[in-house]
Design goal:
Number of helices: 20
Mean pLDDT: 83
Structural class: alpha+beta
Strand content: 15-25%
Radius of gyration: 29 Å
Distance between the termini: 17 Å
Largest sheet: 6 strands, antiparallel
Length: 617
């Protein structure tokens, strides 16, 4: 008699044997059996292949059919799409898949941050791509959704709600070229998951196996939420609570969009609260303008909290603001469009004078050294003035080498080796960075870029007495050793030993400032430029505001405003469900699996009968 668990162990060994190679190798093997030349196999050919690979008797017609059902590989008649079959099975069963997907994730993370894009990050754009490619799903007929990446085709790409996403698809093309085995459908969703995780959001478990669809499967415009659907045409009539006339129809429209996909009000609010914390609107794409939150590149519950706590004003392109001026350009919609803007910037802060009257902290308490960020995020500015352009942002647990620290009013700010100023202590006394120790000179070695207009002088010795040459602005060089000059003309300065020219180069001087910035991977690999649209004004679409006005929506909005951890969990769950709608393994689309696999087995294995095959046999 076989010991308990023997069947499961045998099945696991079988899967390790069959799928032990790379996905490309397995696909190449199956392609040899593609006699039709159209990427399909008959059921008989598939059965023959599997039984030749594994003669144990496991691959009965029942288990073969269960595998086919779980991957969506069936075509018309008796033909099977073998690429879909292998991808679906491999994503769950292949040990090597973990390494291959890890490589894709690594490349996605490398390209995620860019000073050349909105707010310095592509993450919001990639999240929107996945959201919109998934948001076309229709529960009634199973059309649309992420399984197909049909936004690649003109009909769906031309949906006005998808304006601006061409850049996201272009970014994904470069990754796709490197990993040809990965479908666009899977890549778009994986990129969004990586983006959410990279920006402090929930970690979402990825399941692969989506298959790209032909143009005939593209979804016509009309399924994605519209920001002003049902509002009175062109009117700006508002009630006593500032709600634009017709908002009830818009709320019903939003509910209907999510209900069509099989999602409830709580999931809808979670998706909007978590999704609209990212990115901004652009008049050239949608006609709307501005970001929903102050920091649109990090996950938070700021969207929900600000919607409830702040005052909002309905505006058009020509609205006159309370200060007598025009709507700020950053949040000024195009002619004919309506949105809401946050009035916080237009109201006096009664507490500001009290805060600025506090005694400034003693600068000697914050000497140069290694500091760690202890707040959710902190701006890095070009100059110490809070009105100075933002170069980037640092987040919780990121470490910086601060070369000098100065007091500005009630704030303490430090200058980083990678360039820019950060607040160690905010004006109100809140600590943003905590000192961990003295400067680690070894940690300061690496690659540098000359940023001083006059260049970075070179010396024969670390005293900096006799200049022998100069790196011009923009030049990059490697430093193998860093020292703090103790005497000579450059006393108190940091100099780095550049072995390629056998000279010491000035990196930072207390008198002259930063001569060369330390290049940090993922931050300033390319020279950082000020992030655009930094006035701090925030906006909401009318379709956002209905979450505040509709009783069914508001209770969930309040819960997320009160509890960021709850939002993080619910957004992760809802986004995973959204991006798996219509996929063969999804609990929302078991399809034929319901008839070939016991319900208890399918549920226990997330709808993938291949993984449940030992239990089903």
């Amino acid at each position: 008699m076989a010991p308990a668990g023997a069947a499961t162990s045998t099945a696991s060994t079988r899967k390790r044997h069959l799928w032990s190679g790379t996905m490309e190798a397995v696909l190449a093997l199956v392609q040899k059996h593609d006699r039709s030349g159209d990427g399909t196999l008959s059921f008989g050919e598939f059965a023959s292949l599997m039984r030749s690979l594994d003669s144990s008797g496991f691959w009965t017609d029942k288990n073969l059919q269960a595998t086919i059902n779980s991957t969506g590989a069936a075509r018309d008649g008796d033909r099977l799409h073998f690429e879909a079959l292998i991808r679906g099975v491999y994503a769950k069963a292949g040990p090597a898949a973990t390494a291959e997907y890890a490589a894709v994730r690594s490349d996605l993370k490398q390209m995620m941050d860019s000073p050349e894009w909105d707010d310095g990050s592509y993450a919001p754009l990639l999240i929107r791509l996945a959201w919109h490619s998934s948001g076309t799903f229709c529960k009634a007929d199973g059309s649309g959704g992420s399984n197909g990446a049909t936004m690649r085709h003109a009909l769906e790409a031309g949906d006005p709600e998808n304006a601006g996403l061409g850049k996201a698809r272009e970014l994904m093309d470069s990754i796709k070229q490197k990993y040809a085995w990965l479908s666009y459908s899977d890549l778009w969703i994986l990129a969004a998951y990586v983006a959410i995780e990279h920006t402090g959001g929930p970690i979402i478990k990825f399941t692969g196996g989506r298959v790209d669809a032909i143009a005939e499967k593209a979804v016509a415009p009309g399924r994605l939420p519209e920001a002003e659907h049902g509002l009175t045409d062109g009117g700006m009539k508002v009630d006593s609570e500032g709600r634009i006339e017709g908002w009830e129809k818009l709320a019903a429209h939003i509910k209907g969009v999510f209900a069509r996909m099989g999602l409830n009000d709580r999931e809808a609010v979670a998706l909007l609260c978590g999704g609209h914390v990212y990115g901004r609107c652009h008049t050239e794409h949608s006609g709307y303008a501005g970001a929903w939150v102050e920091n649109p590149t990090m996950f938070s519950n700021e969207y929900a909290a600000d919607m409830i706590e702040d005052k909002w004003l309905a505006v058009t392109h020509d609205t006159i603001m309370p200060d007598g001026g025009q709507v700020p350009e950053e949040v000024r919609p195009a002619p004919g469009k309506r949105q809401y803007i946050d009035l916080s910037k237009f109201e006096d802060d009664d507490d500001e004078e009290e805060r600025t009257a506090l005694n400034a902290p003693d600068a000697t308490d914050f000497p140069p050294g290694r500091y760690i960020c202890v707040t959710s995020w902190c701006n890095c500015r070009e100059l110490p003035d809070t009105n100075s352009p933002i170069l980037g942002r640092f987040v919780t647990d990121q470490r910086l080498s601060l070369l000098c620290v100065k007091v500005f009013g009630t704030a303490v700010r430090g200058f980083a080796d990678c360039g820019g100023w950060v607040s160690i202590v905010a004006s109100g006394g809140t600590p943003l960075f905590v000192r961990e120790g003295d400067l680690d000179l070894k940690a300061l070695t690496g690659r540098y870029r000359t940023v001083a207009k006059e260049g970075a002088p070179q010396f024969n010795s670390p005293t900096g007495d006799d200049a022998t040459g100069m790196f011009n602005s923009g030049d990059e060089f490697d430093v193998s050793e860093v020292t703090l000059a103790q005497n000579g003309n450059q006393q108190g300065s940091l100099l780095g030993r550049c072995t390629s020219i056998e000279a010491w180069v000035l990196l930072y001087s207390p008198r002259q400032g930063l001569a060369a910035e330390h290049i940090l991977k993922g931050y300033n690999g390319r020279p950082r430029r000020p992030i655009k649209s930094q006035s701090g004004h925030q906006m909401m679409l009318v379709s956002d505001m209905v979450l505040l006005w509709d009783e069914g929506f508001r209770k969930h909005l309040q819960a997320y405003a009160d509890d960021e951890d709850l939002l993080k969990k619910d957004f992760g769950d809802a986004f995973k469900r959204l991006t798996e709608l219509g996929c063969p393994w999804s609990k929302d689309n078991l399809g034929e699996c319901k008839t070939s696999i016991p319900g208890s087995v399918a549920a226990a294995h997330s709808g993938c009968p291949f993984l449940a095959s030992s239990a089903a046999a």
